[in-house]
User: Fold these one by one.
Assistant:
Number 1:
Amino acid sequence: MFVKFVFQGVMNTNNASNPFKDYDVVFIPYCTGDLHFGSKDMTYIDPTTGSSVVVKHKGYDNVLSVLKYIQTEYPQVQNVFVTGQSAGGYGTLLNYPIVRETISGLNSSAKMNMLIDASNGIVPNGFFSNLSTQWGADSNLPTWVAGIAANYLTVGNPSIQDFFTKVSTHYNGSGDKTGQYTATFDGNQRFFYKVMHIINSAPPYSDEKTTDPYDSSKTYSFLFGDSDGSSIPDGTTASTDGSSCGWTQQAVTSMNGISAGTTNYSYYIAPGDVHTITTSEDMYKLDSGGTNFVTWLTTLSTGTKPGNAKCTNNGGNCAN
């Protein structure tokens, strides 16, 4: 009940246009730093004090606990829509197979569909091995999905594009429809992409702050920049150094790749740089490329594949 007061958008049961206004909501909070997919306690060193800090990366274990609750409370479940935003979007995708199998075990004819919101997974090479070494996620992989073996995270070139394509294809036969949303210049995703590149360069850690050149009342990390992505350099579409246009081009390329690789997936690419949409009232008035977001989402929620939607603008779009 608490989340229905804190969030709006898909949580707003008073909006007649909300396709989920009559749904029960099962909300999994995020506090494990592992995209809801870890099963490991990991010791880190605090760079400011040198002391050891244990982080319980038990996101996947939390998901399993919630699934046990669903098995008890919803034994006749008929229709499920799984969604999450930002880190929760990755949790939605990575855990979709185990959620799907659990729901099918309760009711083999249950309908299930998915949307991940602002979770494109554009990361430097080698990132996915962290899911194995830091989070202990190998044993949580859905190895019943074709092409996802127990060593998926550490062998070859794992990616969100590849994982999404394989999972969507696997559940296509069940009638599942999968969707993905992003803003073209999502500021927070661009920020984290740049931070990953900075961390990989292993600079000396600093907690020094710098003043925003456009707003003297605002400060942010001198090392990592502003979390809204405003301090990230533009770069070009070919950039692979964490710059803005490089992130955007890779995000759009990934979504086009999934769309080409499986027939039950659709994307919605909005204009602007705002991170996440599904818990904002702005989702009801959002249009992109002539398509209203809620109309698109409602179609997806019913198990019908909506068309892809992509913003068009008068210049400024550095991705194709």
Number 2:
Amino acid sequence: MDYLLSQRAGLGDSSFYVYNETLIQSNIEQFKSVPYRNFGIHFASMANDNPVLLKMLQANGFGIFVNSRKHMKLALDCGFSPELIIFASTGICEPTMRLIIEKGVQINIDSRDQLKLYGKLNPGGEIGIRLNIDEKSKNNIFTGLESRIGVLESELPEIFAIADRHQLKITGTHVYLGTDVTSLDDLLEGVDRTLALSNRFADLECVDLGGGFPIDKSRFDFEQYKQIITDRMVQYSSARGRDIKLVLEPGRSMFGNCAYFFTQVSDIKERPDRILVCCDSSASLIPRAMFYEDYNPVEVYNSRSTEWYSKPVDVVGSTTYSRDFMAKGLKLPVVRVGDWLKFDFAGSYCYSMITRFLGQAMPPEYLQRLDGSFELIRAGESYFDQNVSMWTSEEIASGETHRHKIKKVIYSGESQHHKLEILETESYGIGLFLDGRIQHLEKDEYIYSESIIHPVASGLKGDNLNALVVGGGPGGAIRELLKHRRFAHITQVEIDAGIITLTKQYLPHIAQGYHDDERVNIVIDDIVSFARETTQRYDFIIYDISEPLSDSPAANLFTESLICNLKDILTEQGALVTWAGSIGPLSSELAKKINQLWKKVFPYTERFMSHPQSYGTSWLTVAGSNAYLGLSELSREAIDDYCEQNIDGALKLYDGMTHQHMFALPKDVRSLLDDDYITTKSDIISHQINPAREEYI
């Protein structure tokens, strides 16, 4: 969470919602645990209309309750079958009624005239009736004579007559007993009244009791409720002589306690009787209070303050609307501009009720997945640097950047080790970005993947070879390695399981199923521990990790001690290959350091270049070995023969001619790397290893 907050801090329009999948799954299981066997759950879409969340419910077998054409279309688009969609509203116009019938969606009728319209459009159809259980039930705005919704008991004779005229079959009754009902007795009183009225419907198959459950689980005993409602329905079904289906329609109780709303403090005012804390937000963005005068609980996130305000605190929006209060009368620690406020119980009737009034930018919504990563599930608006937000930008050298225009954010989250993004770029398609930097883009990842594997693998000696891939989460390097028949075993050591999961889901074209290959063993571990503890020896180690920048987890993986440990687990004829970063007149420092480190550790080193266009610069790759391999001297014919005899599958880049060109480094590159570099056999110089193994990078 801290990483997500740091990314949004100071942006302007910094407010956002974040949902917790663990809490959502807990609520899903709670409702699924009702023991009554003929039971359905239909989530009330008015509470939250985020498609990602709706698809989670659909995948768990839930139905959905809608009251508009827009939400009916949304439900169908999210995969809900028509028979699992219940449409109930008031004053449904004829075009909408026709559309409901055409789509095969269930409908609950609210009035006599609505029933006549339905009968005219769909004679012989099946429907439900929305009941108003009148003044005998607990009095609130949802029931009784003051309510505008539903059919009164006194209107039922005419309802039955209209149904008979149009040969309609009334198979369901539908009620809504209130909102945030905490009294089990009050709720059951309404249930009993509903069942009593439902006795008047001869063809009854279903009773829909709506929702009304509170967000705060501590205020309502759902375990007791589900057992009582099950007993009631078993008794009722027995009395009716057939199983009557029970439907519940949770709204706020499904997501309400599963989300928070975050916003930054932008100003503090002191008044004689209170403190005003102003936020980069507005009540229009978390508007329950504007409708219900019911404020969300608020706390200062990760407050380090030891002082508390002696006066009550009101949280207000950054508008001129006099009633823009987001919370009132709070007891809070002293805050500073830039602190984050966290609003609890923000998962239902919050984002879905946002109003354009006051002109605030729509906030984004994130989902914290079960593995702790954060995924952007609905993009927000921003009126700050909007063009910049549609591009990625990487610095190649001082004063020089390389950018990609982004068409779509497919995934944005964070794991324990990285900020993870799957982005669709306009030019290069879908790709993986770690900590804001390109790792692979689909249209030219083959250049990188083939380059780090084939030039060295083709020159190794022997059969039944054993390979170790360090990192390599996306799988391109392993995909290429598996094309060589000579490799019998491949171990992948990847510290971040989130990368493997993410790329398996979103980038299957890169991995091409290597996870299921019997030759591959995937180990989730850090390479420092693995290299120290393994008893295996490897013919080929591929260092396929992110750049060792100062703020990157990879910064600790290019030390002399670790590279020496990896050298020690190589076979006598083995080699360790790594990319060394960009190489050019203005961007060679990292490549020079890695090249020097390899020359310091290994008796023999060789270097070659590749040119992945999506990176915006040429890249250097360095191979270190315990024995002389002579990779640069392999002929075009020898490589072509090797590929024909030992490689299965097509290669887009690599062949004999490409191999020779890769090792033919330009003069300026040779000069950057080593002033005495010459392109003859004598260039493969034997180096003495420093036994002190000092840290180098």
Number 3:
Amino acid sequence: MTTICNGEVYPSIARYQKPYSLGKTNAVQRRKDIESCGGFFSKDDPIDYGIKGSRDKNGKTILQVVEDFRSCMKNKGYIYFSNAECGRKNSKTDKGICNE
């Protein structure tokens, strides 16, 4: 038996939350914090971010750069939730702890 789960997956940016405002984290400030920690945003997709310098010339992930980014966000007070912890947007599985 297969379970069909309606709703979209939250984007990575939505999974960074402040512990005192789960599901209501200030999206404008979060974006600024991501940028100050070395993240960047696509002009085509304003909620999808990348991490500057996180790939080498062959496209491999440079783990130290990613860890430095995560550490910076943690130092700014953010918690990062997994897809399973967030649930899916606008569905019965939405836990109400993530927001775009």
